[in-house]
Amino acid sequence: MSHAASIEISNVTKTYPPRGDSAGWKALDRATFSVSPGEFVCILGPSGCGKSTLLNILSGLDDQYEGLAAIHGRSVGQGAVRRPSVGPRTAYVFQEPRLMPWRTVRANIEFALAASNFKPSEWRGRIDNCLALVELSQFSEFYPLQLSGGMQQRAAIARAFSIEPDVLLMDEPFSALDELTARRLRQQLLTIWEKFRSTVLFVTHNAFEATFLSDRILMMTKGPGGKFCDEVELSDLSRPRSYEDVRVFEKSRFVVERLVSHIGQIDVE
Amino acid sequence: MLLQQIGAQSYRSGAGAKFATLIAAVRASLSGRWGDHLIRTSSILTLLAAWYIGAAYLPASVMPAPHVVARVLATEIRSFGIWNDVAITLTRIALAFSIAMSIALILGFAMGLSKTAECFFEIWIIGAITMPSLVLILTIYMVVGLNDRAAILGAALPVVPILTINIWEAIKGIDQKLIDMSKAYHAGRVRIIASVIAPQIAPALLASARFGLGLIWKMVLFVELLGRSDGVGYKIEFYYQSFNMSEVMAYALLFVLIMLFLEIVALGKLERYLFNWRPAQRRF
Predict the structure, then answer these.
(1) ipTM associated with this complex
(2) A2 is a domain residue
């Protein structure tokens, strides 16, 4: 199992050292899980449970942790050299679009392609393809500040898929958008994902979102010392899924109940 | 919202209505390209008027009127004597500016990116900024000698600390989120510096360049006045000693015009080219 896993996290503990007069904070306590290739997994948990910390470890941004974190069998961070031409490619969609405002949408995506060592001759085709998937074709020469928040986030999603990632990390990418826009983007994300079949690890505090999107939900307890406490299998919900589908709604209620039983209070949406 | 509407209505219906229309008309005529030109022209005319008023109240030997200065300047320009000094001073400015900017860039980058460098140089920079330029320039003249090298160094070094601080602050203000994004997308160090850090500090660099150029040109005049026998600064000092204020002002005026040209045409163009991604500025 461990060799076939796309993402593997084993006994990962992360402690933020004490700073000034504030005490240290144990964000993750022996977290363990794995994700198979092509699987869409949501991590659901309350704020401050260490969800984002986990993504930062997997993306290599945070290399101060104990335990094992590996993508396609290669451990990340901790001195491991990340060379996209050799290793698996990961893409990251953040809570905010994180586009460079001085570059057009196209040039922003070109940056990711160049960083992942794609040949310049491939750029145009890849960018046009991905922008079409997020319905931004006419906006390729626009600057980010000329676009709405939802459009910017779509551009960020196009950037992520442009490098054809083996693993896509998403950190509450729709939480800053209004619900209608978020719905459209979730639907769009699933459509694109069906085409690319990247492994997706999607972090959210929204139980309905997690149910609608994923094959499997991993639940985390509150911090400090966030742990995985439960797992809900959703592969019986057939795809493509729809917002009107009663089964999705029923399942999400079930997920909320399970989450509440672990956390003890309703502070999740 | 409603309150605002009521307020606006009572304003319009009252005695202020005519006034409001007038203001709106003036505003409308002042907005747009021609309005800008109109404002600029009146700005220059106001300056000239202020100069004439000063000249009318002060003796001609202290403050000559603009047209007198213009006439002197015209003669100087025709005689070519002034160009020699302008060329010498401009060369010194260019050299001093390159030196000051290079040192400030290296120090500012080092201090912005490395904690050790910041710790090490901070006291130097703060100390240097409190040191009077005059002391620095005199020291350099004593150490290096009364020559051109000393003049250029003397003009460059006093400006270094303030430019360093500008660049250092700009680097500290870099958006860490974009850097994280670049790292998450596997970008290497060189690519991050060239594509993510440089564009973010470009505005501050340009502002520093403008600011530095303005400071350097004053410093160059100062070092020329103190220890050189050519250049605009020397000439100004020379004519001042012989109580010839028309010449002093003619030299100064020509130089201001040259620097204005550099500032508006060269740097202004560069700014518009570099920052065309910014949405149009809104004013309050």
Answers:
(1) 0.89
(2) no
